[in-house]
Design goal:
The complex is a heterodimer. By secondary structure, chain A is mostly helical. Helices cover 76% and strands 4% of the residues of chain A. In chain A, the strands form 2 sheets. A two-stranded antiparallel ribbon of chain A has the order 1-4. Chain A has a two-stranded antiparallel sheet with strand order 2-3. Chain A is globular. Chain B is α/β, with parallel strands linked by helices. In chain B, 35% of the residues lie in helices and 26% in strands. Chain B contains 12 helices and 10 strands. A 6-stranded mixed sheet of chain B has the order 6-7-8-3-9-10, with helices on both faces. Chain B has a 4-stranded antiparallel sheet with strand order 2-1-4-5, covered by helices on one side. Classes of the chains: A mainly alpha, B alpha/beta.
Chain lengths: 291, 261
């Protein structure tokens, strides 16, 4: 029983991490049709900058931890908005070139991070509680899982509130459904593109700081390895669907954890199998509107 | 009705061509839209009427000169070239658009659809509420769950909530029950009292009721312009240009013909 609880909560923690990347991927694809392969770099930069904040402020307390999460979010948002503005916008509607430029940015930024921070992983510490465990029904759960789950729920609620209650949110929701009709109402939908990139980058930046806490280190490849699963989550959830991404993130990560434990470390394989089944049976994803 | 030739012009289209996915859908279209009343853009299915409208708005790749004379700031003399501008800028100049197939945002509520469409500082909410009481009664309903007629009303309301200088309306009665066709025509007639309308419409009874002038497109080109009723009275032209027989175009039931009840 305690093993099941442990796998379940750890899985949800990992799913939370997937969601922090997948939410941005899904919104960006939904509104703009852009598959953003550079999204992992937003996360990695957030992780490094979060670590720098903790290093400079020099204290492993909660205030510094929260500050590093917020700075990570801000840096992720700025990096993402700049990516949209300087690279993606010029390639509007040219999807192959967009893929190429984001893949190129992903490769270049990893090399840049290696150049700045070195190729060795940097081990991070946080508030001591984060490194400890909490007993739940006999299972010792690493505390950072709770922070991950809490953060992703807050990010989900924040994005939902933004989409529901702001003018830009309204434009984004309408644009996901029918972009050209939004412009035909006299709205410059490109501004919403930048906003969506910034939101996705902020979520990824938060994810970066929390991922470094989850793994215990920062490295230049941290974003790229999570990005693969985030893409799978996005496709399973339905491209463009935020709630689909949330459900799929939890599903994929929990399944991965259970398969790793009970089926001899086959978690990644099972996830790809799930992807194949979803693509065959329901190509538009769990909550996707159309293929 | 007058032929409208002597009235001022709100929009001129010269040598417009347009492509969809590399395919030429409008060849070389030239016409004027007068600054009052309803002008019908007619032709058989697939001749390029919708593409002409979309070309004017820049929703598809286009070439040619489109000049708009409704911009008060620059005066009526020179006009403003629209053919190099992006869609949202064109619309912001005061050109309302009611697309074919309504294109309401199905996952947004009625109120959200309307709120999104508001461009003016003082949107005409009361005017819209008066024209479409059925919509005002259901602000929280998702637009995708509205009936076809209600969706068309919403699509019209989205355009009419702003003060426009020109309306481009594409097949507003397509696929609607006859009683709803009458209501849509009523709303358009009301709107046309204050704003010129370029109307693509297959229902010739609606055309007869609303339109003063008519422009006929065939094979991506304009083949006839003139008085709408004169065209519709002429069996030969109606059959040749529009591919319909006399009973659709020739009924003499006059202006109330749109409502069948």
């Amino acid at each position: 029983m305690s093993t099941v609880i442990l796998l379940l909560i750890t899985g949800l923690g990992l799913g939370a991490l997937y969601f922090l990347i997948a939410s941005g991927l899904s919104l960006i694809y939904g509104l703009m049709g852009v598959l953003n392969f550079a999204h992992g770099s937003f996360l990695t930069l957030g992780a490094y900058i979060g670590w720098e904040v903790a290093r400079v402020l020099g204290a492993d307390n909660w205030a510094v931890f929260i500050a590093s999460v917020l700075v990570g979010a801000a840096v992720g948002a700025a990096f993402a908005a700049a990516t949209e503005f300087f690279l993606i916008r010029k390639l509007y509607e040219r999807h192959i070139e967009q893929v190429l430029v984001t893949v190129g940015l992903a490769l270049a930024s990893v090399a840049l991070f290696d150049g700045i921070w070195g190729t060795d992983p940097i081990y991070v510490t946080g508030p001591s509680w984060l490194g400890g465990t909490t007993e739940i029904l006999g299972a010792s759960i690493p505390n950072n899982r709770f922070i991950l789950i809490l953060a992703s729920v807050l990010v989900l609620l924040g994005i939902v509130a933004f989409l529901k209650y702001t003018r830009y949110g309204l434009i984004i929701r309408a644009g996901v459904e029918n972009r050209s009709m939004v412009t035909a109402l006299g709205i410059d939908v490109r501004r919403a593109f930048t906003v969506v990139f910034a939101i996705g980058g902020a979520a990824a930046g938060v994810g970066g700081v929390l991922a470094s806490s989850y793994y215990g280190y920062v490295s230049s490849g941290i974003g790229g390895s999570l990005l693969i699963f985030a893409f799978i989550v996005t496709v399973i959830g339905g491209l463009g669907s935020l709630s689909g991404a949330a459900i799929a993130a939890a599903l994929v990560a929990v399944l991965q954890q259970f398969a790793n434990f009970y089926l001899g470390g086959t978690g990644d394989f099972v996830v790809v199998l799930l992807l194949a089944v979803v693509l065959l049976v329901r190509p538009s994803g769990l909550l996707g509107s159309k293929a | 009705m007058s032929s409208g030739n002597s009235t001022a012009t709100i929009l001129t289209v010269r040598g417009l061509s347009a492509k969809i996915a590399g395919q030429q859908v409008v060849e070389d279209v030239s016409f004027d839209v007068p600054s009052t009343g309803v002008t019908a853009l007619l032709g058989r299915n697939g001749v390029g009427k919708t593409s002409t409208i979309k070309g004017i708005l820049g929703l598809i790749e286009r070439r040619g000169e489109v000049t708009f004379f409704g911009d008060g700031a620059s005066g009526n003399a020179a006009g403003v070239r629209l053919d190099r501008q992006r869609t949202h800028r064109i619309v912001q100049r005061g050109i309302g658009y009611v697309p074919e197939d309504r294109e309401v945002f199905s996952k947004l509520t009625v109120a959200e659809n309307l709120r999104l469409a508001e461009r003016d500082a003082n949107p005409r909410r009361d005017f819209v509420a008066e024209l479409f009481p059925d919509l005002v009664a259901r602000p929280g309903q998702l637009a995708g769950t509205l009936s076809g007629g209600q969706q068309q009303m919403l699509s019209l309301a989205r355009a009419l909530i702003n003060t426009n200088k020109l309306l481009l309306v594409d097949e507003p009665t397509k696929g609607l029950a006859p009683i709803i066709v009458g209501e849509v025509a009523d709303a358009l007639a009301e709107a046309a009292k204050t704003v010129p309308v370029l109307l693509v419409e297959q229902n010739l009874q609606v055309v007869r009721r609303l339109a003063a002038g008519a422009i006929v497109i065939e094979g991506g080109r304009v083949v006839h312009t003139g008085d709408a009723n004169e065209l519709l009275e002429d069996d030969d032209m109606t059959r040749r240009f529009l591919g319909v027989h006399a009973e659709a175009g020739g009924q003499k039931s006059a202006d109330s013909g749109a409502t069948t009840s």
